[in-house]
Design goal:
single chain; alpha+beta; Protein Transport Mog1p, Chain A; 4 helices; globular
Length: 187
């Protein structure tokens, strides 16, 4: 049912997940940038802030770039996925506004459906976490190149968001970026 909503020919087609693109891009992320040891805080005060009109913002290191799909000239557009990446080492985080949660489903019901269709790689584990105070589902998946991805699904109001990055023992930097994630529109 969800796949037909995302892949069907409808007005919301611009919000269908780009799982295949994400998987290909994530498997091309060669190395994670140098990060502080676990438990060590990073000063994020000099990081750049990025806001997307879909209703979220995030801070990232100043040497990282913000991009989107090749034909998308505006990464702040609420209907495109956003990639945050380090140009020299390939580290990559992607964020996308998916289709809205149906009114007749709870957040848990909806995210259980989303996790099964947004990323088709084999699931290794999952756990409920919070992202900017909202319940979120973190799913670890196995990529075709034997790396793992961390995929976070969160609903704010009725808007569904998907955050993904390569899982690595030294991905402290990704977690610190994720800690700066904020919803910018009211529910």
């Amino acid at each position: 049912m969800l796949a037909s909503r995302w892949f069907g020919n409808n007005a919301g087609a611009s919000r269908r997940p780009r799982s295949l693109i994400w998987c290909l891009l994530l498997t091309q992320a060669w190395a994670i940038p140098s990060a502080p040891a676990a438990g060590q805080d990073v000063d994020t005060s000099k990081w750049k802030a990025f806001s997307n009109r879909a209703g979220w913002s995030l801070k990232h290191p100043s040497d990282w770039k913000v991009g989107s799909c090749n034909n998308c000239s505006d990464p702040t557009d609420p209907d495109v996925f956003v990639s945050l990446y380090h140009p020299s080492n390939g580290a990559l985080m992607m964020i996308e506004h998916l289709i809205d949660k149906p009114k007749n489903q709870t957040v848990r019901q909806w995210l259980d459906e989303v996790k099964a269709t947004a990323n088709l790689n084999p699931r290794i584990s999952e756990e409920w976490i919070t992202l900017d105070g909202q319940p979120a589902l973190k799913v670890i998946t196995s990529n075709p190149d034997k790396t793992q991805s961390e995929n976070i699904y969160v609903v704010y109001g009725d808007r569904t968001f998907y955050v993904s990055f390569e899982r690595n023992p030294s991905n402290t930097l990704f977690r610190q970026m994720l800690a700066t994630f904020r919803f910018t529109k009211s529910k």
